[in-house]
Write a structure and sequence with these properties.
47% helix; 10 strands; D-Maltodextrin-Binding Protein, domain 2; alpha/beta; 10-stranded mixed β-sheet; 329 residues; 12 helices
Protein backbone atom coordinates (compact mmCIF):
# COMPACT_ATOMS: atom_id res chain seq x y z
CA UNK A 1 0.00 0.00 0.00
CA UNK A 2 2.81 2.36 0.88
CA UNK A 3 4.66 1.49 -2.34
CA UNK A 4 1.49 2.22 -4.34
CA UNK A 5 1.10 5.61 -2.64
CA UNK A 6 4.77 6.36 -3.26
CA UNK A 7 4.37 5.50 -6.97
CA UNK A 8 1.28 7.65 -7.26
CA UNK A 9 3.06 10.50 -5.55
CA UNK A 10 6.03 10.15 -7.92
CA UNK A 11 3.71 10.24 -10.95
CA UNK A 12 1.99 13.37 -9.65
CA UNK A 13 5.33 15.01 -8.93
CA UNK A 14 6.66 14.24 -12.38
CA UNK A 15 3.42 15.49 -13.91
CA UNK A 16 3.73 18.75 -12.01
CA UNK A 17 7.39 19.10 -13.03
CA UNK A 18 6.58 18.56 -16.73
CA UNK A 19 3.68 20.99 -16.57
CA UNK A 20 5.85 23.63 -14.96
CA UNK A 21 8.52 23.35 -17.62
CA UNK A 22 6.33 22.91 -20.71
CA UNK A 23 3.24 25.00 -20.06
CA UNK A 24 4.78 28.41 -20.91
CA UNK A 25 5.62 27.29 -24.45
CA UNK A 26 2.35 25.47 -24.92
CA UNK A 27 0.41 28.40 -23.56
CA UNK A 28 2.30 30.82 -25.78
CA UNK A 29 1.59 28.72 -28.88
CA UNK A 30 -2.07 28.32 -27.95
CA UNK A 31 -2.46 32.08 -27.43
CA UNK A 32 -0.79 33.01 -30.72
CA UNK A 33 -1.19 35.62 -31.92
CA UNK A 34 -1.63 37.97 -28.98
CA UNK A 35 -0.24 41.11 -30.65
CA UNK A 36 0.18 42.57 -34.15
CA UNK A 37 2.18 40.60 -36.76
CA UNK A 38 4.74 42.31 -38.96
CA UNK A 39 4.57 41.19 -42.62
CA UNK A 40 7.88 42.13 -44.26
CA UNK A 41 7.99 42.72 -48.02
CA UNK A 42 11.19 42.95 -50.10
CA UNK A 43 9.47 45.42 -52.44
CA UNK A 44 8.46 49.10 -52.30
CA UNK A 45 4.86 50.12 -51.76
CA UNK A 46 2.59 50.41 -54.75
CA UNK A 47 3.72 47.29 -56.63
CA UNK A 48 1.87 44.08 -57.35
CA UNK A 49 3.19 42.22 -54.31
CA UNK A 50 2.38 45.18 -52.09
CA UNK A 51 -1.19 45.17 -53.41
CA UNK A 52 -1.50 41.46 -52.64
CA UNK A 53 -0.13 41.92 -49.12
CA UNK A 54 -2.44 44.83 -48.37
CA UNK A 55 -5.61 43.04 -49.44
CA UNK A 56 -4.53 39.95 -47.51
CA UNK A 57 -3.79 41.89 -44.30
CA UNK A 58 -7.39 42.72 -43.25
CA UNK A 59 -8.52 39.21 -44.17
CA UNK A 60 -5.78 37.72 -42.00
CA UNK A 61 -6.92 40.01 -39.19
CA UNK A 62 -10.41 38.52 -39.42
CA UNK A 63 -9.01 35.01 -39.02
CA UNK A 64 -6.20 35.62 -36.52
CA UNK A 65 -7.71 38.40 -34.45
CA UNK A 66 -4.61 40.60 -34.64
CA UNK A 67 -3.56 43.33 -37.11
CA UNK A 68 -1.10 42.48 -39.88
CA UNK A 69 1.28 45.42 -40.33
CA UNK A 70 2.84 45.57 -43.80
CA UNK A 71 6.51 46.58 -43.58
CA UNK A 72 8.15 47.41 -46.94
CA UNK A 73 11.92 46.90 -46.87
CA UNK A 74 13.11 47.05 -50.50
CA UNK A 75 16.68 46.92 -51.69
CA UNK A 76 19.51 44.59 -52.68
CA UNK A 77 17.19 42.35 -54.72
CA UNK A 78 15.28 41.32 -51.61
CA UNK A 79 18.31 40.62 -49.44
CA UNK A 80 17.56 43.41 -46.95
CA UNK A 81 14.09 42.13 -46.10
CA UNK A 82 15.19 38.50 -46.06
CA UNK A 83 18.07 39.23 -43.70
CA UNK A 84 15.79 41.23 -41.40
CA UNK A 85 13.39 38.32 -40.98
CA UNK A 86 16.19 35.74 -40.68
CA UNK A 87 17.53 37.68 -37.67
CA UNK A 88 14.14 38.24 -36.03
CA UNK A 89 12.85 36.46 -32.94
CA UNK A 90 11.35 33.07 -33.90
CA UNK A 91 7.99 33.79 -32.32
CA UNK A 92 5.73 34.17 -35.35
CA UNK A 93 5.44 37.94 -35.12
CA UNK A 94 7.84 38.68 -37.98
CA UNK A 95 6.86 37.05 -41.28
CA UNK A 96 8.46 37.38 -44.70
CA UNK A 97 6.50 37.45 -47.94
CA UNK A 98 9.40 35.99 -49.87
CA UNK A 99 10.08 36.03 -53.58
CA UNK A 100 11.96 33.25 -55.37
CA UNK A 101 14.61 35.65 -56.69
CA UNK A 102 15.94 36.39 -53.22
CA UNK A 103 15.33 32.88 -51.89
CA UNK A 104 16.66 30.63 -54.65
CA UNK A 105 18.67 32.79 -57.08
CA UNK A 106 20.49 35.29 -54.85
CA UNK A 107 22.44 32.61 -52.95
CA UNK A 108 24.34 31.96 -56.20
CA UNK A 109 24.26 35.48 -57.66
CA UNK A 110 25.92 37.08 -54.62
CA UNK A 111 29.31 35.90 -53.41
CA UNK A 112 28.45 36.41 -49.76
CA UNK A 113 25.11 36.88 -48.02
CA UNK A 114 24.56 37.55 -44.31
CA UNK A 115 21.94 34.79 -44.17
CA UNK A 116 21.41 31.25 -45.40
CA UNK A 117 17.84 30.70 -46.59
CA UNK A 118 17.68 26.99 -45.79
CA UNK A 119 19.48 27.37 -42.47
CA UNK A 120 17.86 30.56 -41.15
CA UNK A 121 14.28 30.49 -42.44
CA UNK A 122 11.34 28.11 -42.09
CA UNK A 123 8.82 27.91 -44.99
CA UNK A 124 5.13 28.31 -44.15
CA UNK A 125 3.27 28.12 -47.46
CA UNK A 126 3.31 29.28 -51.05
CA UNK A 127 0.69 31.88 -51.90
CA UNK A 128 0.86 32.60 -55.61
CA UNK A 129 2.89 32.15 -58.75
CA UNK A 130 3.28 34.05 -62.01
CA UNK A 131 4.13 32.44 -65.31
CA UNK A 132 6.38 34.00 -67.93
CA UNK A 133 5.73 34.13 -71.65
CA UNK A 134 8.21 33.80 -74.49
CA UNK A 135 7.30 36.51 -76.99
CA UNK A 136 8.80 37.91 -80.19
CA UNK A 137 8.34 41.21 -81.95
CA UNK A 138 5.65 41.05 -84.63
CA UNK A 139 8.29 41.64 -87.34
CA UNK A 140 10.24 38.47 -86.47
CA UNK A 141 9.35 35.88 -89.15
CA UNK A 142 8.47 33.02 -86.81
CA UNK A 143 5.17 31.70 -85.50
CA UNK A 144 6.31 28.65 -83.53
CA UNK A 145 9.03 27.71 -81.09
CA UNK A 146 10.72 25.40 -83.59
CA UNK A 147 10.87 28.22 -86.14
CA UNK A 148 12.45 30.55 -83.56
CA UNK A 149 15.09 27.97 -82.62
CA UNK A 150 15.85 27.33 -86.29
CA UNK A 151 16.18 31.07 -86.96
CA UNK A 152 18.47 31.57 -83.95
CA UNK A 153 20.70 28.68 -85.00
CA UNK A 154 20.93 30.03 -88.54
CA UNK A 155 21.96 33.44 -87.22
CA UNK A 156 24.13 32.88 -84.13
CA UNK A 157 24.53 36.02 -81.99
CA UNK A 158 22.39 38.07 -84.40
CA UNK A 159 19.17 37.89 -82.38
CA UNK A 160 18.83 39.86 -79.13
CA UNK A 161 16.65 39.44 -76.07
CA UNK A 162 15.81 41.98 -73.38
CA UNK A 163 15.62 41.48 -69.63
CA UNK A 164 15.01 43.59 -66.54
CA UNK A 165 18.71 43.36 -65.65
CA UNK A 166 21.58 40.92 -65.04
CA UNK A 167 20.60 38.16 -62.63
CA UNK A 168 16.88 38.91 -62.92
CA UNK A 169 14.37 36.07 -63.41
CA UNK A 170 13.82 37.20 -67.01
CA UNK A 171 17.57 37.01 -67.65
CA UNK A 172 17.93 33.57 -66.10
CA UNK A 173 14.87 32.24 -67.94
CA UNK A 174 16.40 33.28 -71.26
CA UNK A 175 19.81 31.84 -70.40
CA UNK A 176 18.20 28.52 -69.46
CA UNK A 177 16.31 28.61 -72.76
CA UNK A 178 19.54 29.20 -74.69
CA UNK A 179 21.25 26.36 -72.83
CA UNK A 180 18.40 23.92 -73.44
CA UNK A 181 18.03 24.81 -77.15
CA UNK A 182 21.73 25.22 -77.96
CA UNK A 183 21.20 28.71 -79.39
CA UNK A 184 23.35 31.83 -79.22
CA UNK A 185 21.25 34.92 -78.53
CA UNK A 186 22.65 38.19 -77.23
CA UNK A 187 21.48 39.61 -73.88
CA UNK A 188 20.48 43.30 -73.79
CA UNK A 189 19.82 44.24 -70.15
CA UNK A 190 17.48 47.09 -69.24
CA UNK A 191 16.79 48.78 -65.92
CA UNK A 192 13.48 47.15 -65.15
CA UNK A 193 10.70 45.16 -66.77
CA UNK A 194 9.01 48.24 -68.26
CA UNK A 195 12.07 49.38 -70.24
CA UNK A 196 12.73 45.76 -71.29
CA UNK A 197 9.23 45.56 -72.74
CA UNK A 198 9.67 48.94 -74.43
CA UNK A 199 12.85 47.56 -76.00
CA UNK A 200 11.08 44.70 -77.75
CA UNK A 201 8.14 46.90 -78.77
CA UNK A 202 10.57 49.36 -80.32
CA UNK A 203 12.42 46.66 -82.22
CA UNK A 204 15.68 47.10 -80.29
CA UNK A 205 15.49 43.38 -79.46
CA UNK A 206 13.65 40.52 -81.13
CA UNK A 207 12.45 38.46 -78.18
CA UNK A 208 12.05 38.36 -74.42
CA UNK A 209 10.55 36.45 -71.54
CA UNK A 210 7.95 38.62 -69.84
CA UNK A 211 5.19 38.54 -67.26
CA UNK A 212 1.53 38.39 -68.26
CA UNK A 213 0.88 41.97 -67.18
CA UNK A 214 3.89 43.24 -69.16
CA UNK A 215 3.49 41.46 -72.49
CA UNK A 216 0.02 39.99 -72.94
CA UNK A 217 -1.77 43.32 -73.58
CA UNK A 218 0.65 43.86 -76.48
CA UNK A 219 0.08 40.29 -77.69
CA UNK A 220 -3.65 40.99 -77.86
CA UNK A 221 -2.95 44.18 -79.83
CA UNK A 222 -0.82 42.24 -82.31
CA UNK A 223 2.42 44.08 -81.48
CA UNK A 224 4.02 40.97 -79.96
CA UNK A 225 3.60 37.28 -80.76
CA UNK A 226 3.48 34.76 -77.89
CA UNK A 227 5.12 31.40 -78.58
CA UNK A 228 5.06 29.53 -75.28
CA UNK A 229 4.60 29.58 -71.50
CA UNK A 230 7.55 28.89 -69.18
CA UNK A 231 5.71 26.80 -66.58
CA UNK A 232 4.80 23.13 -66.56
CA UNK A 233 1.10 23.96 -66.80
CA UNK A 234 -0.70 26.30 -69.18
CA UNK A 235 -1.76 29.76 -68.12
CA UNK A 236 -5.35 30.78 -67.47
CA UNK A 237 -4.46 34.07 -69.17
CA UNK A 238 -3.76 32.27 -72.46
CA UNK A 239 -5.04 28.68 -72.16
CA UNK A 240 -4.41 27.88 -75.84
CA UNK A 241 -0.71 28.73 -75.60
CA UNK A 242 1.50 25.62 -75.16
CA UNK A 243 4.20 25.30 -72.54
CA UNK A 244 7.88 24.91 -73.38
CA UNK A 245 7.63 21.55 -71.64
CA UNK A 246 4.94 20.45 -74.12
CA UNK A 247 7.04 21.68 -77.03
CA UNK A 248 9.99 19.45 -76.21
CA UNK A 249 11.95 21.28 -73.50
CA UNK A 250 11.06 18.63 -70.93
CA UNK A 251 10.90 19.90 -67.37
CA UNK A 252 11.38 23.56 -68.32
CA UNK A 253 9.74 25.37 -65.42
CA UNK A 254 10.53 29.00 -64.66
CA UNK A 255 8.01 31.02 -62.68
CA UNK A 256 7.95 33.76 -60.12
CA UNK A 257 6.38 32.77 -56.86
CA UNK A 258 5.59 34.33 -53.50
CA UNK A 259 5.32 32.61 -50.14
CA UNK A 260 5.44 33.13 -46.42
CA UNK A 261 8.49 32.27 -44.31
CA UNK A 262 9.43 32.81 -40.67
CA UNK A 263 12.67 32.56 -38.65
CA UNK A 264 13.95 28.99 -38.46
CA UNK A 265 13.10 28.11 -34.86
CA UNK A 266 9.51 29.35 -34.95
CA UNK A 267 7.31 26.71 -33.24
CA UNK A 268 5.49 24.33 -35.57
CA UNK A 269 2.15 25.18 -33.96
CA UNK A 270 2.63 28.84 -34.88
CA UNK A 271 3.61 27.90 -38.42
CA UNK A 272 0.49 25.76 -38.75
CA UNK A 273 -1.70 28.64 -37.55
CA UNK A 274 -0.18 31.03 -40.07
CA UNK A 275 -0.40 28.46 -42.85
CA UNK A 276 -4.09 27.74 -42.26
CA UNK A 277 -5.02 31.43 -42.16
CA UNK A 278 -3.00 32.38 -45.24
CA UNK A 279 -4.37 29.50 -47.29
CA UNK A 280 -7.95 30.45 -46.44
CA UNK A 281 -7.30 34.06 -47.40
CA UNK A 282 -5.81 33.39 -50.86
CA UNK A 283 -8.85 31.29 -51.72
CA UNK A 284 -11.25 34.18 -51.04
CA UNK A 285 -12.82 35.49 -54.30
CA UNK A 286 -11.82 39.12 -53.72
CA UNK A 287 -8.20 38.14 -53.08
CA UNK A 288 -8.08 35.85 -56.11
CA UNK A 289 -9.47 38.73 -58.19
CA UNK A 290 -6.60 41.02 -57.15
CA UNK A 291 -4.13 38.22 -57.88
CA UNK A 292 -5.60 37.66 -61.34
CA UNK A 293 -5.22 41.35 -62.19
CA UNK A 294 -1.54 41.03 -61.31
CA UNK A 295 -1.12 37.92 -63.46
CA UNK A 296 -0.87 35.73 -60.33
CA UNK A 297 -2.40 32.32 -59.76
CA UNK A 298 -3.10 30.85 -56.34
CA UNK A 299 -0.72 28.11 -55.20
CA UNK A 300 -0.79 26.54 -51.76
CA UNK A 301 1.31 23.74 -50.28
CA UNK A 302 2.71 22.37 -47.04
CA UNK A 303 5.83 23.68 -45.28
CA UNK A 304 7.67 20.49 -46.30
CA UNK A 305 6.67 20.87 -49.96
CA UNK A 306 7.68 24.51 -49.89
CA UNK A 307 11.07 23.60 -48.40
CA UNK A 308 11.61 21.02 -51.16
CA UNK A 309 10.77 23.60 -53.83
CA UNK A 310 13.31 26.06 -52.39
CA UNK A 311 15.99 23.39 -52.25
CA UNK A 312 15.33 22.15 -55.79
CA UNK A 313 15.23 25.59 -57.38
CA UNK A 314 18.33 26.72 -55.51
CA UNK A 315 20.25 23.77 -56.94
CA UNK A 316 18.93 24.42 -60.48
CA UNK A 317 19.93 28.08 -60.48
CA UNK A 318 23.28 27.37 -58.84
CA UNK A 319 24.16 25.04 -61.72
CA UNK A 320 23.11 27.53 -64.40
CA UNK A 321 24.61 30.62 -62.74
CA UNK A 322 27.89 28.82 -62.15
CA UNK A 323 28.04 27.44 -65.69
CA UNK A 324 27.62 30.85 -67.32
CA UNK A 325 29.31 32.89 -64.57
CA UNK A 326 26.24 35.14 -64.12
CA UNK A 327 26.42 37.85 -61.46
CA UNK A 328 23.99 40.44 -60.17
CA UNK A 329 24.61 44.11 -60.79
Amino acid sequence: MKQRNFSLGLVLALSGWLTAYTSPTLAADAAYPSRPIRLVLPFPSGGGTDSLARIMAPKMLELLGQPIVVDNRPGASGNIATDFVARAEPDGYTVLMGFNTSLTMNPSLYKKLPFDVQRDLKPVTLLASAKYFLVVNETVPVKTLSELVALAKSKPDQLNYSSSGPGSPLHLAAELFKYRTGTQIQHIPYKGGGPATAGILGGEVQLMFGSASAVMPHVRQGKLRALAVTSLTRSAVAPDLPTLNELGLTGFDVTSWYGLLVPKNTPDAVVARLQAAAQKVVQMPEVKDVMARQGLEMVINTPAEFATLIKTETRTWADLIGKFNITAE
